[in-house]
Please model this.
Amino acid sequence: MLPQNSETYSYHLLVMGREGVPVIDMQKVEGLGEEIVKACEEWGCFRIVNHGIPPELMAEMKAVAASLFDLPEEIKRRTVDTGPGKGYVGRNKVSPFYEGFSIDEVSSTDEFCDRLDVSSHQREIMHRYIKAIRDFAGLLGRKLMEGIGLAGDLFDDGWFCQLRMNKYHYCPESVGLTGAGLHADPSFLTILQDDENVNGLQIVDKLSGEFAPVDYVPGTLVVNVGDIGKIWSNGRYYNVKHRIWCFEPKTRYSIGLFLFGPTDKKIVAPSNLVDSEHPRLFVPIDAEEYRHVRYSTELRTGGAVDLFRTNAE
Model:
């Protein structure tokens, strides 16, 4: 585990020669797309400031998530789903401190709310939050395209997106243990509203292979690259491995939007990311099929992408 005192951490960064996870300002005019692409390649993770989602709405959404987790178990289980990574997940022997809710398609928010008897006020907050973070994802996708010299909406309305709410029931016994074990996300990108009071997100640094903290920065969102992002970028983006570590016995919440892939076509690297020096590494894949393969093989730390290689290396 990476030491957390400031002197040791500063020395660690000096040895690595890196300043830590980038913080990117979405109001930057020149070179924003290139900066985002560089962060995807070098870190697979970055923070975003001036993302456009009102802090009041973020606070309201966190309060809604907390209230849903406070519902009786029998009500929460109305949203259980047998699909991989979907529906309600309760605490269990494998993940004794973790509990999660998923709106498995953000266009189906009303169905999720109906099952939990969510109030009209809570429903309105969820609708506004999903629209705001989905709008931000659209902007992020356009900037990613600009960063590689293309135009268009990468994450258009045809993309399958999931909203996941997480609760970590930390207690004295959980300190020094993981709330969520080491994994890479099965998505293209994940956009995370993390907890402003409880840190714990750690990524595996691409250069050193050591854990580096992604501590909270006020007013920001975390963005990280998943397996689909590595495949789409022809191996250039880093599908960063990460975990949630418990440092103190405080309840931790987070809310993530997972951008998986288009529902009507397969993921394939753009032609301008493929050349004689960078041959096509992956066959075209269906994002939903990829999720099923990944869960069935239990290759959760990025290795599942190798099952879709073209053997062009």
Summary: The chain has eight helices and eleven strands. Helices lie at 6-16, 32-42, 55-69, 73-76, 109-116, 120-147, 227-232, 287-297. Residues 8 and 201 are 18 Å apart (CA to CA). The radius of gyration is 19 Å.
